[in-house]
Design goal:
There is one protein chain. By secondary structure, the protein is α/β, with parallel strands linked by helices. The chain has 2 domains: about 160 residues, P-loop containing nucleotide triphosphate hydrolases (Rossmann fold); about 60 residues, no CATH class. The protein is built from 11 helices and 10 strands. The protein has a 6-stranded mixed beta sheet with strand order 6-7-8-3-9-10, sandwiched between helices. Strands 2-1-4-5 form a 4-stranded antiparallel beta sheet, covered by helices on one side. It is globular and about 45 Å long.
Length: about 240
């Protein structure tokens, strides 16, 4: 059974649908990529899964249990955590304080020290900067902190929305290697990303979205060789 099972999901803003009856499955322990151009509905999808947007219709099952209609904090308690686009850190709090905010649910608080050690092993620079204000970090360091803050909640599935946004190419490569390492440690990753080639390189499977619809799906290595996808998204 899939870890996340989305069935015929319709969602959007006010009364205007952005997602038009999409169905997506995420298997446990995999990296699943959602790719597509701006306006495809990728961020709307993550916001709906997170409970930030109520769906118009359809079903969202996590571990075979419906989560649509739950409050965002309840969805986090179930193990679904989103790293938002643009990082959205608390800039006037320190690195350490931002990480503590990420471990606000009961189980995560109880295991905070052990999680912090794991985080600092994964992101040594955050250990060095732990007393530094988040707003003074570089763009790459801020993305590390945003990702680490999400991991502090000890998610079963981490949803990452455009994590490479605003990063230099060298930092993008390093970021994707980190995502791979997080996955190796047992965390399922749902990755929304405009760097299509990078996303298809590190993911197991992928869905391609256009205008609120899924237009292609399959194993990432197969999609990388698809002629239409190459022409439309890779410029080949």
């Amino acid at each position: 059974m899939p870890l996340l099972d989305i069935k015929n999901l319709v969602s959007g803003y006010k009364k205007v649908p952005v997602l038009h009856g999409i169905s997506i499955q995420v298997e446990g322990k995999e990296i699943l990529a959602i790719v597509g151009s701006n306006g495809a509905g990728k961020t709307t999808l993550l916001k709906t899964i997170s409970g930030l947007l109520p769906p118009f219709s359809g079903e969202i099952l996590f571990e075979q249990t419906p989560i649509q209609g739950l409050e965002p904090y309840q969805i986090v308690e179930r193990g679904v955590v989103q790293v938002p686009e643009g990082r959205q850190l608390f800039n006037f709090l320190t690195v350490q304080q931002n990480l503590q905010v990420g471990s606000h649910i009961a189980e995560a608080r109880q295991r905070r020290e052990g999680t912090l050690k794991t985080i600092f092993d994964l992101f040594p620079v955050l250990s060095e900067r732990r007393q530094q204000l988040a707003g003074t970090l570089s763009g790459g360091e801020q993305q590390m902190l945003a990702t680490a803050r999400g991991l502090m909640a000890r998610p079963k599935m981490l949803m990452m929305d455009e994590p490479s946004w605003g990063l230099a190419p060298m930092l993008v490569h390093r970021l994707f290697e980190t995502i791979r390492e997080i996955n190796k440690q047992g965390c399922t990753i749902l990755l929304v990303e405009q760097h299509v080639h990078q996303a298809l390189t590190i993911s197991n499977r992928a869905y391609v979205m256009e205008r609120g619809n899924v237009v292609m799906a399959g194993e990432s290595k197969t999609l990388r060789e698809d002629k239409r996808l190459k022409e439309t998204y890779l410029g080949i």
